[in-house]
Amino acid sequence: MSLHGDYDSQNIFAQIIRGDAPCYKLYEDDDVLAFLDVFPQSYGHSLVIPKRSAARNMLDIDSESLCKVMQVVQKITRALVDELQPAGVQVAQFNGAPAGQTVFHIHMHVIPRFAGEDLGIHASAKADAAELEALQARLVTRLKA
Ligand code: 5GP
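A: This is the predicted complex of the input protein with guanosine-5'-monophosphate.
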């Protein structure tokens, strides 16, 4: 998929927004949804997406929606740091397949980084459902604190 093209309303994140596919939700408001990545690059890897903007990437999204997404990125980053105490946090966003994008609804990755771990950009393994559920519960509690 190139940088340019039509938005596909059947992409997995559009399905999650509509409630047609499940997610491990961390936070939601009228405009933004945050949830755990099911193929995490690290423990706590989270995704933040706009709900109302049918944008594939940074070129498409309106600035107001982008600002709302970034406010939630900061909220999630703070919760991850407080709860998991990583050594660092990577905030990443890819535009177009050659840049590493695989899901064509704009999203921000928030990836806690722990000392000694590899900095891969794609994980090969799906996380264990029970582990994701337990992590979701910890982070939701932290976000409400
Ligand atoms: P991209 O490579 O497009 O920047 O990132 C897409 C991300 O979505 C990847 O980190 C991938 O693991 C994640 N992902 C793909 N399918 C699903 C899914 O069904 N649910 C969730 N929560 N994450 C997904």
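The chain has a mean pLDDT of 95. Helices lie at 12-18, 63-84, 129-144.
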